[in-house]
Amino acid sequence: MSKIKKGYYYTNTHEWVKVEDGFAYIGISDYAQENLGEIVFVELPDEEMVIEAGSELGAIESVKAASDILSPITGTIVMVNDELEDNPELLNEDPYENWIVKVDMEDNSELSELLSPDEYEDICDE
Amino acid sequence: MYYDNLIFEISKENHIGYSLPDYDIPTYHIPKSFKRKDELLLPEVSELEAVRHYTNVSFKNFGIEKGMYPLGSCTMKYNPKINQDISNDPRFSLHPYQPDHTVQGLLEIYTETARILGELSGLDAFTLNSYAGAQGELLGLMIIKKYHQDNDDLKRTKIIVPDSAHGTNPASASVAGFDVVEVKSNEDGTVNLEDLNSVLGDDIAGIMLTNPNTLGIFEKDILEIAERVHGAGGLLYYDGANLNPILGIARPGDMGFDIMHINLHKTFSTPHGGGGPGAGPVGVKASLKHLLPQPVVKKTDERYTIEHHNDTTIGQISQFYGNMGVIIKAYTYLLSIGKENFKKIGQNSVLNANYIKESLKDLYQLPFERTCKHEFVFSGIKDKSTDVHTLDIAKRLLDFDIHPPTIYFPLVVKEAIMIEPPETESKDTVDHFIDVMKTVAKEAITDPETVKTAPHTTVVRRLDEAEAARNPRVKYRDLI
Fold it and tell me: Which of A89, B223, B275, B450 has its CA 20 to 30 A from that of B57?
């Protein structure tokens, strides 16, 4: 049973968003890392890139598959967690602590369209 | 027996594997400045030592000639030795720069192979120039691009690919300069018509499909799909990876496809999976024939000629006219099977797949309860209580001398294990495979540790795939 953290917003493509100090942090869920298996490479975007909700933010390669990371929200990337470049396994070890990008959100109301932990749990159980 | 030497490690000074006759020509002294200064690093072994070395090394390999190889989406059929014998005939060892009139036989084989492939696929013209399936895909997409360009229809920049497609499809479309639009598949992997409708428009250049699809299920709406894509001005591309089960029964050309590639190394029994090289002939409807790549082999009054340049082609995608050795092997296969027997290839591969599916569905999770074609996908074992995954099952099969099936593909099925038993496997072998799969499924419950730590009998045990991808060591020396 994979962990779902309270206080986060989720997508049905298994990304999460956490809001802290007015910035949005984006990562992948425990369910995502568990299903991908051991992650061997994370393709990160550039800082200052403008991303749209639903667009491709980067990609993750595991021993099983390559998978796109889709942005849950619209905004500008202010910081990239480049530690993941050398240590992609951090996403396996703690997917909720190890965010992928920090984003200056354009429109906070987008968050209401994302899934709550309970709603996300239903998707994972399917 | 464990054998792990390099030939340099068994090399001993003055061991030799040849004997040369005495010189009968005058000695010529090479000036010192032209002589190499360092040692010529060649191993010194006797003939017997060399033979033993390579025989031992060959035991480490697994191939279709060692055991069953039910690798989904790859059609690992047996490659009859006669194919090799014929292509090895020294009379075929010709130089590609020889004048046309001295290679008439080869050009006839080229033309005849293209003609037979055309008849089997329902397409009007074939080029055999492309070296592999993926190159065939790229070529097909370049034809689609040029077709629209020639019509001054420049806004068609998108290629539709279903989410269950082979990974090469979006990759080829991207290399050809198209944007990829993904359409969702239905639960059984067939194209979702509603989703297809929502993306069709005047920016669509074409769609790439395979039928039967990646889950081994026949796309029953194919005529409807073809009509809609054509109606929107797009072309239909057929990925020939799954051609085997419909051989002699259904033809992509009749389904409405305009272009396709064929993997001679899958469907027409030329070696692959490390044994290559491949060949990926591309066929088109008559309306696209003028776009095929040069050089073009032409038949005129019982003579064959090579046209090197024309004004309508997409250009040249390979040196000369393809992997001729592979084409000779495929031609040998086409003739030795014979027109009247192609149907049996499709029928028997479909029978094998359904027989295995039905025999194992009590122990393995079958996501779609339907008749499949040449392959099908299980979603891991049914009883998941011991946390044994598809990867473990695949590794355990190695201990029974069976090559693991394709795993974790397609992505639309969780814990996917994709099984394709080609027609060249007898009922006895298929029964053996079923027994082994049952044994492993039961072991997964009674003795999960054995399965999770498999393989136990192979040259190397379970490899650390993550470490291999994160910190690859690609030189032998790095390992010691």
Answer: B450
* Partner residue facing B466 (CB), from A35, A63, A67: A63
Q: What is the pLDDT of residue A66?
A: 85
A68 interfaces chain B, CB cutoff of 8 Å: no
Q: Do A39 and A62 form a contact (C-beta atoms < 8 A)? A: yes
Distances (CA, A) of A32 to A82, B94, B393: 20, 55, 22
- Residues paired with residue B161 on neighbouring β-strands, in sequence order: B182
List of chain B residues whose C-beta atoms are within 8 Å of the C-beta of residue A38: 465-466
Q: How many Å apart are CA A26 and CA A56, to the nearest integer?
A: 13
Give the predicted TM-score (pTM) of the model. 0.87
pLDDT value at position B268? 96
* Whether A13 contacts chain B with CB within 8 A: no
Residue with tokens 């995608």: B317
Within 10 angstroms of residue B77's Cβ, the number of other Cβ atoms is 22
Residues from chain A contacting residue B414 (CB–CB below 8 Å): 35
A21: closest CA of chain B, how far (Å):
34
Q: Is A7 exposed, middle or buried (0-12, 13-18, 19+ CB in 10 A)?
A: exposed
Give the residue among B228, B188, B147, B192 at the shortest CA–CA distance from B366.
B188
Interface pTM (ipTM) of the complex?
0.73
Identify whether the C-beta of residue B410 lies closer than 8 Å to the C-beta of residue B215: yes
SS3 B313: coil
